[in-house]
Amino acid sequence: MDALQSWWDGLGGWQVPVRVLIIIVVATLIRLVLQFVIARVVRTIVTGVKKRQGVHDTQALAATPLAAVRIVQRTRALGGVLSSVVTTVVVIVALLLVITTISPDAAGAFSLITAAVGAGLGFGAQNIVRDTLNGIFMVIEDQFGVGDVVDLGPATGVVESVGIRVTDIRDVNGTLWHVRNGEIVRVGNLSQGWARAIIDLAVPYEVDIEDVEARILATAVTLQHDPKWRRLIIEKPEVWGIESISAEAIVIRLVVKTRTSAKDDVARELRARLKRTLDDAGIRLPALNSIVLSGYEGAGSIRGARTPKTQPVPLGEQASSSAPKDPS
Fold first, then answer.
1. Which of 305 and 45 is assigned the larger pLDDT?
2. For the purposes of burial, counting CB atoms within 10 Å of the CB of 169, is it exposed (0-12), middle (13-18) or buried (19 or more)?
3. What's 61's DSSP letter?
4. 106, 121, 140: which is the final residue of a domain?
5. Among the four residues 3, 169, 276, 278, which has the most C-beta atoms within 10 Å?
6. Which residues form the domain of 51?
């Protein structure tokens, strides 16, 4: 101890720089240790859930019970928020210690400066406080987590990260949106609970509606009993009946309750089977003037890092189909 004290006294004018260096090194080590602990806890929880469910990929959890999926997503979101909080607190404390080390008399002056700056910037800083608190409460209340497909108003897509102030959303086009948590006033989560595949099938006006509905329902029930699709369909399909009537066609609505991540896959497979069923029955679908896509259809097809597979529409075909017909 005496040797250490004599070494410290021998530093002379270098005591302040050495003390500042020690504060920076200790703060860095504390941050690294806390970040390691948070990452280790998150990894342990996620690995434990995957092991209990018998899967290795997070995407495979889509077929497991909802609780397992939510634990993984919520844990990762909380881990991101806690990492941001740890970094912010450590940096602020280290900065204060460095200032008081360089100038011991700066503590009182610093408090006065802080009060003056706080009074001057209080109105502007309330946005930062609102962003922080809103982000923390959204994660604690499990409104969404990393990997969820959400509609936040300003952006719709997959949640890639949840920070203490900003949430990153990747939309269907690949654009990464940075949404301030304080600007999120509503959350539409497409990944919680269950989803519903809704298929509106237009059939000719003169067909036997009861026969068509029976064929449609039988096709959907066959899909439900298929071993490949059985685990993705939660309840028995339902035909809700006639959705609309026009001079061109009668629209019949079929709904299938599915797991959130399987809605689009089930809908695509069911459309293909319905097409074959109607072809076998000799029912030719009427030509519709236009098809308008809106709502969550674009974001719902995202699978995290898996890019959606789309095919471009030829410009000539699109122009010819949308051009008005000559009445003559």
1. 45
2. buried
3. G
4. 140
5. 169
6. 2-140
